[in-house]
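fwd from M.: "can u put these together and see what the complex looks like"

so here's what she sent:
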Amino acid sequence: MKGQPIFIQEVATRDGFQNEAQFVDTDDKIALVDRLSACGYAKIEVTSFTSPKAIPALRDAEAVMHGIKRIEGVVYTVLVPNTRGAERALSCGVDEVNLVMSVSESHNRTNLRMGREQSFAQLAEVIGVVKQTNVAINVSLSTAMGCPMEGDIAQQEVLSWMQRFAELGVHGVTLCDTTGMAFPSQVGALCLAACERFPTLELTLHFHNTRGMALANTLAALEAGIDRFDASLGGLGGCPYAPGATGNVCTEELVHMLELDGYNTGVNLTELLAASALLPRLIGHDVPSQLLKAGRRMDLHSMPSLASDGRPKQRAFATGA
Amino acid sequence: MKGQPIFIQEVATRDGFQNEAQFVDTDDKIALVDRLSACGYAKIEVTSFTSPKAIPALRDAEAVMHGIKRIEGVVYTVLVPNTRGAERALSCGVDEVNLVMSVSESHNRTNLRMGREQSFAQLAEVIGVVKQTNVAINVSLSTAMGCPMEGDIAQQEVLSWMQRFAELGVHGVTLCDTTGMAFPSQVGALCLAACERFPTLELTLHFHNTRGMALANTLAALEAGIDRFDASLGGLGGCPYAPGATGNVCTEELVHMLELDGYNTGVNLTELLAASALLPRLIGHDVPSQLLKAGRRMDLHSMPSLASDGRPKQRAFATGA
């Protein structure tokens, strides 16, 4: 796949920050998005126009959207739960709205406090409003690879929700592995089926690394023809059921692997790592990113200093494999 | 690959413990190996017969080997650096000795304090000794997918070291991604070449998760025909160049993924997780395992309690994807 373009979509300032206890200052959010805009992303999910009471961490959505310097070639998207949110988002001139519901009834009730049909009706209303503009519409389907309460989700269930939204004229659908339940063969089969049935929809895969499989699942999705991935700088974005577990797939780790494998993400990994290094100050704690700790594959080390006999003075590695 | 057997080889008590600052009591080591013996592994690397001065953490190698209850069907292997170590290991009746050297000159000098040719001569001598017994011989080739000082390692370089050891009559070779520099397409190409050129050697892949790619690399190796993997309980086994970064690929995460994908590892994941949960007490700190924190994919949760209006009292998830 040498040189094949892959589209990387950053979600840290939305999916990441919404879970953080420490409020990230509006100016810091704006500075971070501006920095990310220069990194080469296809899309940045800037914030969420949910109720400030429900998600206080993102209560400054308008200020952030108005404050950032938008650059050509990057799609600026925001999460929108209802028509009120859509109106707020549209008034900020967003490029895309991202709607969300779960394909599992239990998760939808838990997360959105309503049944799936009620969610669908609400989102259909939002779609009706947004379609009067030229703003793009994406729908993120949560728990598409498993529900932490119901378990397996039938592929047919996912495809039928995609179908309902496709019929409403959305531009894209994101299949979300909300709590890291996806595994490679499942991902491959679902992606193949989705690509085949919806060849004109813009398909995004949204992985969490809760059980360590995010990059393996990415490989499976790539092989099935997917070329668009959500990812979160530093691996931000926790799972409330797994305190201490990693969150979304880490953008710098995703880009690092894809570029090594010969794909063209268009993302500048050096800039990305520099931006990720700023996160701990913003959120008040370390981030899950392994790459930030270890450095890139080819960030080489010098040999330890040698003693007079030409042998290293100190063993840099424990004897082992 | 439904039902295809995959051989899992545990290295935590050797590659993991050797890097730990806290000495794990001999009795605890024995109890852990005994517990692991019941889990269904193909092989357990119990300890290392290196100089107690070089690796004090494993200074009790004889006591551990004599103390464990070996069970039928599990190969008990140990790391051996030289003939002195080989003699100690043979006196304990090990099933296999595992020799180690690096395919990169710089890493071999740093890790083993001698050049590769000197290492090869020393290991050839060990092989000569061990071949007089019916104990199996494996060679672990470190830095086979990259050297933290030299960078890329040519595939031809790896194959030619394999060739030299194959000519000495070793039974198996382990290709080690010592500092987590491997990436999927590289792994696939190397494994294909190795399988083709050495069809009768027992090939093992040994991944580290330093940059998050261990499970993705596992997928690539599987696709290239590899069926045998080293892994470390809890993800133990740090890289001295990346403090805080994860170590070896985590056994429970590897088994979890493989079983979900339909492979047959023979390993009991429930027992494995129970054993992994003991590690923090033994080593005095948390382990990298995400699976230990998050639980298995199908370890389901109940819905939050409902208020009188039938809606969850508390939002268990932040609104998001």
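replying to her w this: Residues 7-294 of chain B form a domain with the TIM Barrel fold (CATH 3.20.20.70).
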